[in-house]
Amino acid sequence: MRLLIAFALVLGLAGLAYLAGRARGNRMVTVAGGRMGAVHSRPVYHGAYVAVLALAPALLVLAGWGIVGEGLIEGQVLGSLSAAERPAPGNDSEALLNEVRGLVNGDLPQAFNPLAPRLAPVYAAARSNGDLLASALAVALLAMGGLWGWSRLRPDFRARNRVETQVRALLLVSSVVAILTTFGIVLSLIFESIRFFQLVSPVEFLTGLQWSPQTAIRADQVGSTGAFGAVPLFWGTIFIGAIIAMAVAIPLGLMSAIYLTQYADPRVRKWLKPILELLAGVPTVVYGFFAALTIAPLVRSFAVALGMTNASSDSALAAGLVMGVMIIPFVSSMADDSLAAVPRAMRDGSLAMGATPSETVKKVLVPAALPGIMGGVLLAVSRAIGETMIVVMAAGLAANLTANPFSSVTTVTTQIVALLTGDQEFDSAKTLSAFALGLVLFVMTLVLNIYALAVVKRYREAYE
Amino acid sequence: MATLAAPAAPIAERQPTDWTTQAMRSRIAARYRAERNFRRLGAAALVIAASFLAFLLFTIVRDGWTGFQRTETRIEVQFDAATLGVDPAAVAGPQGQALLARADYQALLLKAAEQLGPADDTLSDAAWMELREALMDNPALLGKRASLWVPVRSSIDLLAKGKYDLAAPAESRGVTDREVSDWRWLEGKGLLRTGFNTTFLFGADSTEPELAGIGGAALGSLLTLAVTIAIAFPLGVFSAVWLEEFAPKGRLADIIELSINNLAAVPSIIFGLLGLAFFLNFAGMPRSAPLVGGITLALMIMPVIVIASRVAIKAVPPSIRDAALGIGASPIQVVFHHVLPLALPGIMTGTIIGIARALGETAPLLLIGMRAFVTDVPQGFTSPATVLPMQVFLWSDDVQRGFVEKTSAAIMVLMLVLIAMNSLAIYLRNRFERRW
Amino acid sequence: MNQNPAIGHNTVPKMTARDVNVFYGQKQAIKNVSIDVSAEHVTAFIGPSGCGKSTFLRCLNRMNDTVDGARVEGRIELDGQDVYASGMDVVQLRARVGMVFQKPNPFPKSIYENVAYGPRLHGLARSKTDMDEIVESALKRAGLWDEAKDRLNESGTAMSGGQQQRLCIARAIAVDPEVILMDEPCSALDPIATARIEELIDELRGRYAIVIVTHNMQQAARVSQKTAFFHLGTLVEYDDTSAIFTNPKATRTKDYITGRYG
To answer: Hey, are the CB atoms on C123 and B27 less than 8 Å from each other?
Structure first.
């Protein structure tokens, strides 16, 4: 909250800096007799130049404090305790700090932990000192930057060029965020995975057939139980996402695309396409709810009607079916694009030979568009195996290695959610294994995507 | 004429094709049949996809529309000062409202419920709040009798809405004989009414279905999306501008482009892992907060905005840039004065689609703890909150029967907002799409 | 041009068109065109671009059906049968009236499969050897056999432009059509390839009724015996090629021939 005030203050001061710079620019124009070209840049650029020099360092300070501040305060608060009193890092510390925060903010009328009331003033002091220091530093830098910028303004000062260079730098920095995000993902996944692989061997993780992280809460159990064999998870992911879902999505998506592009009246197409796109816009949590509440019981009764006694109520089939429907618009639009990229001359050539439209589609268009369609299917697979909510809500948690669609399997994403929600110690092999699973998922989707995009690209180039 | 194309060997002569033979005719008929079947297959695929959507929407609306209603019963309440434990004289004083707020309405309700006879255990746990509201609105009621409508328990509510199959055997129908007889008694006395459920729209979460609302989650979504938009929109548009207009061909631009394309395809849950490992554990930012959720979603939808913006910027013809450059505008001025305004509809369309995606997203927020059970509306960007899709997820997990209709009703609200956003995007695309 | 002595002059027309009008939506592209196409001749349609000659050509095998919003009025007959009658089978019509397009458009399949495509569709081959025979004779007629016989399994798209166009002609010939429509078949080719196609057309003359659309008047003069001049969607003049080029009756034809516009 205080940080917000400091932020508003900094913005206000930067506004003042802008006005000051612009006023000076205006004065220079007046002095020069309002003659065009006597002052290199228009007054607004003088203002903007001063404002940027004032604002940038101050914002950096405030943002930096916002990100690392809480951590520093917590360190200081916990450091004020003697070693004997200090709670174990992880959950215990976090709980204590939460109570302290609650007391300071007034959300919590009374603390359960006897240490909390003692720490509350320490916390409050550390926070207000820190906020004050950061705000003061920000304002000081703002003043220095603003004054320095203001002092540089001259009629021949190239304020516009400077501002434009600064804007370009801003654009570049914005672009670099994408790289930083990628790095952040890779680093956090690898970092936590390495910690996991210090506890469990990668070979065991990647080839083991037993997955039961629940039994391996105590660190000394891990190696001996063999509880972290992720193969059943990989199988479940592929079974639901790449087999069942694709068995639904590929025929329906491809046929929809063919009907829309080859047969449908343009007016009909105008209505049908948004309906299909709506399927893609339904939040996955809605699909999950629908799969769990409506489709899963139907699938189970169907299995019972077939005479299966052990049909599961969270069957792979229910989750896969619904996921397949979710993927239909994706496959359909990729197929649509690929078919549209086949030159019209191909189609005309075939029709002029006396082929019917369906023969043209089957014998000329689809074979010609096949690389593009395959690329689209791979992208769809990558999306399906990364899909989370449907499987969390409709698939099971039991890691079975089975090809029976009516039994329950679990997936990588389901396990990540199961492992990381609820109250766990963050350092346990159990929670760390979620990051190893995340790393596998990331690599799998990345490889699929890069390969699929390359296939699609090569295909597009073939017809350009 | 030279015989350049003359065949080197004799050409086998064939009889001209006779199209009138029976075999040829039936062959053509078979081909047309195949054609019709193929066409029907295509239509069937679309019909299946559309009917799945229709079935989904139908079940949601069927289960959910009653979620917007709640059943209330009428009780006569004697606002007895002694039962309430307040001093009538003090209530008239300056501390009156505070005193009334703290009074013992539970006891008052317990007394009032006696008049319901056999059905005295049918009132909602929060029915006393209605009494408090009535008295605080009108302190003159103190010591007087009033007739009030108060909410009933979820089971009675569901009975009144006909959600149970009463013909089923008692053990499998999910409601006890006692509850059924209570409901019949109230119904017979004409003490029940079903009305619009404002608590559902504006209230926050609760453990009791009849008291649960989506207001808190909706506000949480709003706060989260505010952060998302504030970060993703400028970053996305700026990167698109840089990549399209200023990026020198080279390694850096390639890496950025590769990163964006890959981020666009990274599963959303991976962003949740990033948020957990980096923002929560490394940077020590607060759990369950809209701020962290917003940043995480912003990173997730930024590639969507970048890609849409690049397409829109690319569509602005070079002649416009040349014209502006030709009269002495700097490249930055060209971009901000000409290119961006012309590309804005396309950028907005992409942004709305990205925001709609962020609004419907659940998985990454699960990992950063935005599944907190929050019974109050969130206070700010750093206090614990939940979001609409997360509320759907939490309720769908609840074993209480009454949450089924609440879940479906929440989905209806979520879907309505999403459809409105997507329609806006489609409208913008059609309305402002310019063909050069 | 050398005249084939076997061709008589007073022959029954292979295709006739009467009062044909074509509309694309509201726009009329062809106005009241009536014409006879003889089986023994090569008939050339000439005229400035946008005059409707290609549009009219595409009416003859109903390829305009594939264009959204196109509407054809009037009567077009093949051997006395109404092409646009409801009983007319488009598939069969297009097998009997083959077409070669402006840009060579071989399918992305092998040379063999390109030629075999039509016979397979229409069930013309009874056996594998029969099909081999059809492919061989079609390629020979198209003058492509010597170049293609050793690479029948290579992709048709890997050939040169002129070879591709001859492959397309072979593809059209393989179903043994009665009429071959050629829509500016040489416009995407270099002069040498063009010369070969023109020779090929001359070879094929007499065996198939050939209609060729061209914007190149010299080409029309070289390959055709009958020429029709189209302008702004109307048929201005239709006569023996020699008559059109030496003694045009209409001034518009004369202006076009002499290069006033085009």
So the answer is: yes
Q: What is the pLDDT of residues B372-409, one digit of tens each?
A: 777 777 777 877 888 999 999 999 988 788 888 899 99
Please provide the size of chain B in residues.
436
**Are residues A449 and A322 part of one domain?**
yes
- Quick one: residue A422, left, alpha or beta (phi over 0 = left, psi -120 to 50 = alpha)? left
Which two structure tokens, joined as six digits, stand for A107? Answer: 């959300």
Minimal-distance CA residue of chain A relative to C157: A462
Quick check: is A358 in a domain? yes
3-state secondary structure at position C186: coil
Helix (H) or strand (E) holding B392: helix B388-396
Strand-pair partners of C75: C18
Q: Are strands C97-100 and C179-183 parallel, antiparallel or unpaired?
A: parallel
Tokens 């802008």, residue? A18
Q: What is residue C216's DSSP assignment?
A: -
Which DSSP state fits B211?
Answer: G
Q: Which of A337-341, B112-116, C114-118 has the highest mean pLDDT?
A: C114-118
**C176 contacts B14? CB cut-off 8 A:** yes
Is residue C140 within 8 angstroms of chain B, CB to CB?
yes
Of A125, A157, A189, which residue constitutes the final position of a domain?
A: A157
At B283 the pLDDT is 76
Average pLDDT over residues A246-260: 95
Distance of CA A173 to the CA centre of its chain: 20
Cα angle vertex C73, ends C67, C79, to 5°? 95
In a domain, B18, yes or no: no
Q: What's the CATH code of the domain at B264?
A: 1.10.3720.10
Gyration radius from chain A CA atoms: 31
Range of the domain at A313: 225-462
Cβ C99–A354 below 8 Å, yes or no?
no
Q: State how far residue B334 is from chain C, nearest Cα, in angstroms.
A: 39
The whole-number average pLDDT for the span B328-347 is 89
Dihedral (C-alpha) A370, A371, A372, A375: value to the nearest 10 degrees?
120
Residue of C nearest to A356 (CA): C91
Same-domain check for residues B168 and B108: yes
- Total Cβ atoms within 10 A of residue A283: 23
Give the span between the Cα atoms of C94 and C90, in whole angstroms: 6
How many whole angstroms separate alpha carbon A43 and alpha carbon B244? 29
Confidence of residue A217 (pLDDT cuts 50, 70, 90): very low
Q: Report the gap between the CA of A114 and the closest CA in chain B (Å).
A: 23
Strands (E), A111-159: none
CATH domain C13-257 topology: Rossmann fold (3.40.50)
Task: Give the CA distances from residue B9 to residues A439, B6, C131, C139, C140, in Å, rounded to whole numbers and listed in that order.
Answer: 66, 9, 18, 12, 8
Distance separating alpha carbons of residues B205 and B212, to the nearest angstrom: 5
Burial profile A95-126: b = 16 or more Cβ within 10 angstroms, e = fewer = ebbbbbbbbbeeebeebebebbeebbebbbeb
Per-residue pLDDT band for B120 (boundaries 50, 70, 90) equals: confident
Same domain, B181 and B229: no
